[in-house]
Amino acid sequence: MPSENEKNLLFAVIRDWDAVRFAQMIFRASQVLDDLYDQDHEVPKEKIVKTFWEVLVEIPSNPFYLRNIATLTPLLQGMMLDWIDSCTLERSGSEHEQNVAFVLRDSVSALAIHCAYLVNGYDWMVDVSPDIRRLIFNESVEEYRKELDR
C-alpha cells in the first residue's frame, strides 16, 4: 500500500483527504521500518529520506493529526508496540507465537478504522471497518509464513 487505486478506496471509506494522507504516511513509514528491520527488501536512500521527512515534518503539521492528536498518539504507541512484539514473536520458532505475530500486524488497520470513526462517527466506522481490513490486510497467513521461512 498505497497505490492510487488504494488511495481512492481509502478515501471512499474515510472521506477526509487530510486523514487519508495521514494514514498513508503512517503506512509508508511502517513499511519502510519493517523493510529496514527485516532487511528482506532493499530500501533506496531516497525512500528513507522521504519517510523521515514525512514522519518529522508532514505528519506533525497534518491538520487531521493536529485536530486528533490526543486519540491518535495512544493508537500509534499501541501500533508500534504491536509491531515490536510481532518481530519478537515471529522469530520464536513457535507456530502459535508466529500466528499471534501475524494477527498483531493487523493493528495498522485499526489506525485507518479510527480515522473513519473520527471523521464520520460510530455507525460509519462499523459499516466500513471490514472493507478497511480487506484493503490493508491483504496477506494470507500462509504467505506470511513463507516470508518467515526465507
What would your notes on this structure say?
- With 150 residues, the chain is mainly alpha-helical.
- It has one domain.
- It contains 8 helices and no strands.
- Helix 1 packs antiparallel against helix 7.
- The chain is globular, with a radius of gyration of 16 Å.
- The two termini are 22 Å apart.
Core attributes:
mainly alpha; 8 helices
What's the arrangement of secondary structure elements?
Layout: H1 4-14, H2 17-38, H3 45-61, H4 63-90, H5 95-104, H6 107-120, H7 122-136, H8 141-148
Distance between the termini: 22 Å
Q: Which blocks of ≥5 consecutive residues have pLDDT under 50?
A: none
Secondary structure: number of strands: 0
For the sheet with most strands, the description reads: none
Classify the helix fraction into a percent range: over 70%
Would you tell me the overall average pLDDT? 91
Taken together, the total number of domains comes to 1
Report Rg: 16 Å
Write down the overall geometry: globular
Helical/strand content category: mainly alpha
Order of helices and strands: HHHHHHHH
Q: What fraction strand? A: under 5%
Number of helices, where a helix is a run of at least 4 consecutive DSSP H or I residues: 8
